[in-house]
Amino acid sequence: MTKTLTEDQMDDLYNAAHTVDGEIVTDYSGRGMFGAECVGIILNDDCALFTFARLLDDDLAELLGNPRWDNMGLREIAYWPNVAHQSADATV
Fold first, then answer.
1. How many helices (H) and strands (E) does the chain have?
2. What pLDDT does 29 receive?
3. Closest to 68 measured CA to CA, from 78, 76, 83, 82
4. Which of 46, 36, 40 is nearest to 5 (CA)?
5. Domain boundaries in the chain?
6. What is the pTM of this model?
7. Any idea what DSSP says for residue 82?
8. 61 with 49: CB under 8 angstroms?
């Protein structure tokens, strides 16, 4: 079941990512996702994820749950295959 984040929740993710010098992506397709897209955070080191998680509201952290990881060379991405963002300009 895919969970969709609200604009407020996305703002919280962007703010926390900025604090840890991370970058939020909303169109990541990880291993085994077969083209499906999800929310993730690109980080310079894996320790930043702990700080990122502590900056989030408890309800948002619980909604995200445990991330999966992919190595991107010098950086890593933590992503949540079951969490998506519906952009404001998307057609329904």
1. 3, 6
2. 96
3. 78
4. 40
5. 3-83
6. 0.88
7. T
8. no
